[in-house]
Amino acid sequence: SLPRIRLSSLQAQDISPGLLRLWDDQRLCPHFHLPLQSGSDAVLKAMRRRYTTGEYRRAVSLVRERVPDVAITTDVIAGFPGETDAGFEETYALCQKAGFADIHAFPYSRRPNTGAALMRGHLPPEVRRARLERLLELARESSDAFRGRFLGRTIDVLWEQASGGRWQGLTGNYIRVYTFA
Question: Torsion over CA of 18, 1, 72 and 177, rounded to 10 degrees?
Fold first, then answer.
């Protein structure tokens, strides 16, 4: 009896044709949050991620082929220890090509008692900040482009909240919508 089901984070290695067949049920929202973290295989390995950039790209392609009007969002960390200029550019290029509906970008921050805190190659704060700023600008551009694809279309909205005569809600593919009642 639930009108809408939204899954939270999925991992790239979990995406399969069998899983995607579940989206034949229209109640499942066409929104996938697939954390990338980095578009550099060297950094992914250092992070101990269980996927490569090739596997991540394959997962994004499978989702796009199987789920119409899908929103794919992601998380990216800028400036992980050992991330080279070339590694960051790989991340930027992958995010640009993927056309994410949104990118949640964060600067790496050292946390005590973690493996990353003990790694060599910690980047200066100004390098991490500059990389983060580039990713945040790309996130704005990517999000605008995604939402722009739906201008002029009629899409179901689950209205969530009213305040001061203005309602807000979300489409199934995670576009925030506002209207006045």
Answer: 160
Query: Are 165 and 172 in contact, with CB atoms under 8 Å apart?
Result: no
Q: Give the Å distances, CA to CA, from 98 to 2, 36, 52, 113.
A: 31, 11, 15, 34
Alpha-carbon distance 149 to 179, whole Å? Answer: 19
% of the chain at pLDDT higher than 90: 88
Torsional sign, CA 80, 84, 90, 95: positive
Strand, coil or helix: 73 = strand
pLDDT tens digits, 93-113: 999 999 999 999 999 998 888
Q: What is the spatial distance between Cα 68 and Cα 108, in angstroms, rounded to a whole number? A: 34
Cα(153)–Cα(47) distance, rounded to whole angstroms? 41
Residue 78 has pLDDT above 80, yes or no: yes
pTM metric for this prediction: 0.92
* Positive or negative: CA dihedral 33, 35, 145, 55: negative
Query: Residues in the chain, how many?
Result: 181
42, 87 Cβ separation under 8 angstroms: yes
